[in-house]
Amino acid sequence: MKKDISVIVPIYNEEESLPELVEWIDRVMQQHQFSYEVWLMNDGSTDNSWQVIKQLSAQYPNVHGKSFQRNYGKAAVLNVGFKLAQGDVVITMDADLQDSPDEIPELYRLIKEENYDLVSGWKKKRYDPLSKTIPTKLFNAATSFMSGIRLHDFNCGLKAYKNKVVKSLEVHGEMHRYIPVLAKWNGFNRIGEKVVKHYPRKYGTTKYGWERFINGFLDLLSISFVTRFKKRPMHFFGLWGTIAFLTGFFIAVFLIAEKLIKLRLGETPRDVVAQPLFFLGLTSIIVGVQLFLAGFLGEIMALDNARSSDYQIADEC
After folding, report:
1. Rounded to an integer, what is the distance from CA 220 to the centroid of its chain?
2. Same domain as 44, residue 178
3. Is residue 315 part of a domain?
């Protein structure tokens, strides 16, 4: 049955916060008379989170749970949750009570009345330690620069989407941080931002370490490449292959011309192959040819694997 709102909550060892979070969500939904569903996605927790989820599901008819066999990561959990969501507006939020369900009505309004495709929360005032806030700011600045999407907080777990946006997404690895980038790639350009309250962690400790920033940076490079060149790999490999080949070619022409000029002037030139510059030019030519061939093969594979599902249909009649 269609709902106004679907709330997706990734969970990993958050047994203490879950009863308070679900009660808070239910209170907000009842106050605003939303029809809703909550998906509590247990990502292989090692505490009693799944037992608590089953109790909450029995207590609240709109609360449902899914439990994964092991810890797959937030992106995988969201990917499954997106497929389950039936609400016109889909809200994602963290389970640690640092995101406020009181933000849901305004996020819903921005999607339904102002016609945003996606609205991302911005934790303007954070209660995290400097070891987390400083790398986060650097990460957000780099992502904004490379993607062209002017958001202050890509990693905020509190986001709202049109249902058709989440149905168009395939999220894996650490790419939950780049959902706005993926949405833009799929043609959803109305991306907004809302300042949201950030609460200090009430229970437990953070589940993320420094490695997430390294993985996040690698995923940023990956998604930047894929979104730009997935359909046209020759534009990347062919460009750099041509530059490398021409560089090597002009080096070779220069060395040969230099030798011929010196012979004409009666001087004794060095052998072309005895000069380090020759090997640089030869290497450039070889690399250029390889890059060009990689682009050519990539184009063949892209054409061979093209599917109509790769293209997002905006409407039909």
Report:
1. 7
2. yes
3. no
* pLDDT tens digits, one per residue of 210-241: 566 666 667 777 766 766 776 778 888 888 99
Distant-in-sequence, close-in-space partners of 101: CB < 8 Å, separation ≥ 6: 7, 21, 24, 25, 27, 28, 93
Question: Structural domain of residue 244, as residue ranges?
Answer: 234-310
Name the average pLDDT for the chain. 85
Residue 159 lies in a domain: yes
Model pTM?
Answer: 0.73
For residues 6-28, give the mean pLDDT: 95
Whether residue 248 sits in one domain with residue 194: no
Q: What tens digit of pLDDT does each residue of 254-312 get? A: 998 988 888 888 888 788 778 888 899 999 999 999 998 888 887 777 666 655 445 45
Same domain, 294 and 146: no
Assigned token pair, 168: 């168009």
Q: What is the CATH number of the domain that holds 7?
A: 3.90.550.10
Q: Are residues 243 and 217 in the same domain?
A: no
DSSP the chain: --EEEEEEEEESS-TTTHHHHHHHHHHHHHHTT--EEEEEEE-S-SSSHHHHHHHHHHH-TTEEEEE-SS---HHHHHHHHHHH--EEEEEE--SSS-B-GGGHHHHHHHHHTS--SEEEEE-SS--S-HHHHHHHHHHHHHHHHHH----S-TT-S-EEEEHHHHHT----TTGGGGHHHHHHHTT---EEEEE--BPPP-SS-----THHHHHHHHHHHHHHHHHHHSS-THHHHHHHHHHHHHHHHHHHHHHHHHHHHHHHTT--PPPGGGSHHHHHHHHHHHHHHHHHHHHHHHHHHHHHT--GGGS------
Work out how many domains the chain is built from and give that number. Answer: 2
